[in-house]
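User: Can you help me understand a structure? I only have the sequence.
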Amino acid sequence: MSNSNVVKLVQPGTFSDQLTEVLRRGARCLLAQAVEAEVADFLGGHGELKTGDGRQRVVRHGHLPEREVLTGIGPVALRQPRVRDRAAAADDPGRIRFSSMILPPYMRRSKSIETLLPILYLKGISTGDFSEALAALLGKDAPGLSASAIGRLKEGWQDDHATWARRDLSARRYVYIWADGIHLQARLEEEAQCILVIIGATPEGTKELIGFTDGTRESAHDWRVLLLDLKRRGLTIAPELAVADGALGFWKALGEVWPKTREQRCWVHKTANVLARLPKSQHPKAKRALQDIWMAETKVDAETAFDAFIEGYAVKYDKAAECLSKDRGALLAFHDFPAEHWKHLRTTNPIESTFATVRHRTIRSKGCLSNRTALAMVFKLVEGAQKNWRRLDGHALLPKLILGVKFTNGLEVIAKANELQNATAAA
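Assistant: Let's start by predicting it. Here is the structure, written out as tokens:
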């Protein structure tokens, strides 16, 4: 083998990657173009404003000093355009100001890097190893990644989580909530512990993380502490419906804190529990039979399919039939809510889908993480994921639930009554 065919290995960050440099220059041009377009839109929106002597009031005024933003391909330098309001002094509170949404003031690292840092920490990389790990990913010139800088960031995340955990909830209300206990591969101080999660749907249909702490999945005490904390901070109005797995201490705690909240068991968990009590040869047929229940268009049809399953499996597979029948009412509660919401209410998917991503990004670390540190790291990941959560379908119907409007088989009861009244009047 000739020397020309030998690839020499060098330390991360010590080589010049021409492709990365090309990408970085391209990113700088694209970012500059995007900010320029943003400034142009801002100026266009204020184009009709004039000064006392008839000149354009809001105009370009040079550029701010160049700054570097740390991105996934390393630091990208940019000079941001400056905007001036000719009709107001610099200290005038009424002065028209431009603030870029693409490149906010004081931004020093992209959101992808903000997400990367807690991922690396949860993977077991120590604070002292961050610089080497990130130099390999971002290049040797990546700024602000010393051990002390990472330490300050970690403390900042812990402060962010602590502030969020103490926030006032008196102005908040949630129509639905989803609850689950999530076990992550990142090890907490005690192996038996997990993260208790509650997500809520606002009257506007947006989903928010409202409860998040460490605890034990099956412990009614830990769930009670979390729910009482939410209530103490102002969340006094009980949700209309709670969705969760059946094997949780959550239900006992919910009954004590918000006894009027309806219960809906997760069909994904229930299906898995029923199938676990059947031989594999029966799984395809049983899955179809269970799907006939939760996909039924009316509660009567669901009850009929429910009875058929119990009758068909009770004799030979009594444990599977009993597993299903014991939660009959809680499994069919969704029929009393708008049909547009059914796909959101039948499972704990809002939690499962979010934490599936978090699970993939964490592995068992070399040593135990303190609960405070692990919670802060996972909180930052969930906080980022929350920005992409979908709004509930049929969100316009949520205020009706708050006003006490009843639904049967997914349809508004009042609407049915009005139809009957109109039909009677027409006759």
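Now, to help you interpret it: The longest strand covers residues 207-215. Residues 267-346+400-427 form one domain. Let me know which part you'd like to focus on.
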